[in-house]
Design brief:
Blueprint lengths: L20 E10 L4 H14 L4 H4 L4 H5 L10 E11 L7 E2 L1 H9 L7 E7 L4 E2 L7 E7 L5 E8 L6 H4 L16 H8 L3 H12 L3
Parallel strand pairs: 1-2, 1-4, 3-5, 4-7
Antiparallel strand pairs: 6-7
Helix pairs in contact: 1-7
Length: 204
């Protein structure tokens, strides 16, 4: 018997639809992103359900993602689907929650898919910094509903609120973790590292 008894997951199911099994993640890039930034997010999503032995050994992103198999409905295997680019910011550079849903709807709707809107550093979203991302569902014009999420790039607007440990936090007293970790991340691309982490936190 194990010395430490593993605690059960205590997540209340509210009887809503679940994204389980093979789930397609469509990406809507809103604003200017470099090719390397695209690659970081796409590679991260693919690594969540990587089949290689090295990625499934602990600790790894894939081994962390395996915990979702214990939730109601079983495992969720992510597949990167459509990628839409709106680098001209057709809806402007300040977006409302309704506009986020409208952007997400561009990737269509279907069973077992989620549309993720990624906004660049120069795009403001209502309520940004009090929230660095969100998720929900919307209604398609052709009927049916779609699941979506938004992840914003906080690097120029509020990195101290949204980007720890990739950026020095505003409130030092609330920091948990070595300062050296922050210095390592500060030498990297704060913005896209943060966005990949937020994608993970939503647990698609």
């Amino acid at each position: 018997t194990a010395l430490v008894q593993e605690q059960p997951l205590l997540l209340k199911y509210h009887n809503g639809p679940l994204l389980k099994g093979n789930t397609t993640v469509n990406l809507i890039w809103y604003g200017a992103f470099s090719a390397s930034q695209h690659a970081v997010v796409v590679d991260f999503l693919r690594s969540l359900t990587s089949s290689s032995k090295s990625s499934s050994s602990s600790p790894s992103v894939a081994s962390w993602w395996l915990t979702t198999a214990r939730y109601r409905g079983g495992p969720c295997n992510l597949l990167v689907g459509r990628q839409l680019v709106d680098d001209k910011c057709s809806l402007g550079k300040r977006l409302s929650s309704a506009q986020l849903a409208a952007l997400a709807s561009r990737a269509g709707h279907g069973k077992n898919q989620i549309n993720v809107v990624l906004t660049s550093a120069d795009v403001a979203v209502d309520g940004f910094c009090s929230r660095c991302g969100t998720h929900g569902s919307g209604s398609a014009k052709s009927g049916g509903k779609f699941a979506y999420a938004w992840v914003g790039n906080a690097v120029s607007q509020c990195p101290g609120q949204c980007a720890w440990p990739f950026h020095q936090p505003n409130h030092i007293s609330f920091v948990v973790g070595p300062a050296v970790l922050q210095s390592i991340f500060l030498r990297r691309e704060v913005n896209i590292q943060l966005m990949a982490s937020l994608v993970r936190l939503f647990g698609f």
